[in-house]
Each structure stands twice: as C-alpha cells, then as structure tokens.
Predict the structure.
Amino acid sequence: IGSSDRVVDDAWLPLATEVLHMVTLVNRPSIACYSPLTCGFLGPRSSSAVECSNTSAVQWSLRHNVAGTVQLFTQMDGQWMLLNASLQGNVYLTHSSGGPEDSNEGSMESEFVACLASDKHVLLRSIIPASRPGFLCSSLQGGVKLETSGTA
C-alpha cells in the first residue's frame, strides 16, 4: 500500500515510505500491514471502514484462492470481516459467513493480487476490472482507498 504523486508504470519502483510492510505473525497463517507513511497498521476503524492510523497491529488472515489471488479476513466481535474494494475507490469491510479456512470463494471486490516489490514490501492490487490496475493506497491522514488513476 503506498501513497505518492508518482505515476505507476513499468519503470516505477516504490520507495520504502510508499508501501506497507507485510509482517508475518509468528506461528500464524496471517499478516499485519504497517504503513511507514502514517506509522500505523491497516485495521478496522468501524464495522465497515478501514484505516492506516491504528497504532496496534491487526491480524489479517489470508485465504489463498485457486486463481492465485488472496482475500484478507479479520475478526471483529467474534465475526469474520472481509476486506473489499469498489470501482469508486472505496475500501471497506463486509461480514463474511465463513473465515479464511472455508472454501467459499468471494467476489472480485474481495480478491487481491499481492505484487511483491522486495522481500518485505508488497503492493495489493484489486482484480476489479478497470482501465488501470487499482492498488490499495493510504493517505497521510490514514485513510485507505483504491487508486486507479495511475498514481499510487
């Protein structure tokens, strides 16, 4: 997850402050996403909103789909929530009937491709069909959106 005004093209290499770091949680099939830009972790702000200004790590459990995509789940109040993105640029949580261990594949709004930029940096790209690839981006204030304009 990154944030800058630079155009994303084939020659683009993200700076360390432009991507979230994926931190593997010890002995768990999950990750935490840290933003050096906001000095916070990706996590729920409410029952449906996400942000990157949290100061504590949030566990995101991964479901690896047959198509090579991943879905990110977190638990809130004992219920599984699924990370989604829309063509309008919104990034939000929805209730899921099952967790990451269930075999139900979700909709395109909930599937992402993890594009590794290095051994510890990753860009999360939505598979929603758009004119340009849509990457998850964070603002300095901690808001999270799907960026499809060509800058991330």
